[in-house]
Amino acid sequence: MTDTTGLPHWLDGKRWDGDGTRTSPVFNPATGAVTAEVHLASAADVDTIVASSRAAFTEWRRASLTTRVNVLFAFRELMHAHREDIARIITAQHGKVFSDALGEVGRGLEVVEFACGIPHQLKGGHSEQVSTDVDVHSVRQPVGVMAGITPFNFPAMVPLWMFPVAIACGNAFILKPSERDPGASLLMAELWAEAGLPDGVFNIVQGDKEAVDALLTHPGVDGVSFVGSTPIARYVYETGAQAGKRVQALGGAKNHMIVLPDADLDAAADAAVSAGYGSAGERCMAISVLVAVEPVADALIDKIRTRIADLTITDGMTPGADMGPLVTAMHRDRVAGYVQRGVDEGATLLVDGRDVTVSADGREGGFFLGPCLFDHVTTAMDIYRDEIFGPVLSVVRATSYDDAVRLVNENAYGNGVALFTRDGGAARRFEFEIEAGMVGINVPIPVPMAYYSFGGWNDSLFGDTHVHGPEGVHFYTRGKVVTTRWADPVTRGPDLGFPTHT
Ligand code: NAD
After folding, report:
1. Which residues, listed in sequence order, are joined to residue 37 by a DSSP beta bridge?
2. Full-prediction pTM beyond 0.90?
3. Where do the H-state alpha helices sit in 420-492?
4. Centre of ligand 1 from the C-alpha of residue 252, in Å
5. 488 with 499: CB under 8 angstroms?
6. What is the mean pLDDT of residues 171-192?
7. CB under 6 Å to ligand 1: residues?
């Protein structure tokens, strides 16, 4: 299986170096060592890959539903058998702890399982006899060549939000993974080939902005799914739409967790720590703002501090690790810079993770940053407004439920949000009036199951469809309505041998 020292593109069922000469280093974040060089595609490389995908699409769109589903089931089995191999690559290139990497593969697999049921999703409607001898039926057909551009933080799960559904619907798919941790996608490409997917239906172009720009403007690409930060999501949406493509672009987040005075504070503290610091806060559904509705703040903070003290920060492959390193030194330094900015802005830094040391052999150069906890954060501060994307949890003290809800609804993002309470009436009202795409009640990270769709509101989404589930099927298909008239043979005459009406 995949050796990760050189990470090329994937073309027509094989690794392909391309003609581009640029490469980018891939690190093991736990040691700081460069472990691979990923190829960065030129625009000419993108041309070659798109040509392969177009040719594959003309055949794949004709493949029967049974053929497609058989390939998907085989892919599902192979993914399941290799889930630990994929998770090991994720931990080695992203840094998250192994159990979390395994969880990511599991959530991605659920989308493959959803896609195995595609015949049900593609059933159309039929209206009989809308006029004399006239019927109408609707079908959904594949769009063509679809591209997916994905972020570093879920190198298997986010691509899996897209390509199983796109391919099941009959499209060809080009994945442009994050250049920071592209290894998992190459292993998944090998598994597609082993599952019997025809060459070219799934291609990978490795690269950075040059590859993305080439995909966004290429006449051979019909649609683009993007997941990443808000500024790039906005750019991808605008550029792709201007080139006449359908685009869904999921952006960044600043997820709030509101704790009402009646909440179970132990459950809330557990949730805040796992959702704030899990995967070192590098999750688009991470909780980064804890809104404590007074008088609970002091008691809640005490419980959170106790739990933080118990966290083990080390190499993600170490058994018992709770939190690994950040993805790169540059990102770790950016997050640490926000911690300093919070101090300078006047927030109270209760736990400072900047002095964390990981002394395990060879891990001294890893990109580690311990959990950081701020109190007395206000909405005027940069640490409140900006997406930090690291292990930094900010406590904002609110005076009432209304105060807390107003805070969330005035925030620029609208990805996930959670409420902790024992009051069903409060929870019901919250569901109704909160402005976010994914809502958790006593659930800190409310990631929808594969048969629902995942996506946020406001600056967390550009476009109008969420990913996977029914909205994913909608995005990767076009509707067609067919109106037919077939005259009754009896009214046409006796020549076909039908008995005459009596
Ligand atoms: P990013 O925006 O830097 O990169 C995402 C993709 O865009 C990568 O493939 C990258 O190569 C490409 N890219 C980067 N800069 C580009 C440019 N100037 N022009 C064209 N393409 C460019 O995001 P990231 O740092 O890899 O991932 C973290 C971000 O993704 C966070 O903001 C996080 O909230 C977000 N995210 C959102 C969701 C969601 O569902 N909304 C899920 C996961 C991650």
Report:
1. 6, 25
2. yes
3. 424-433, 469-475, 489-492
4. 8
5. no
6. 98
7. 149-154, 158, 176, 178-179, 208-209, 212, 227-229, 232, 250-253, 284, 387, 389, 415, 456, 460
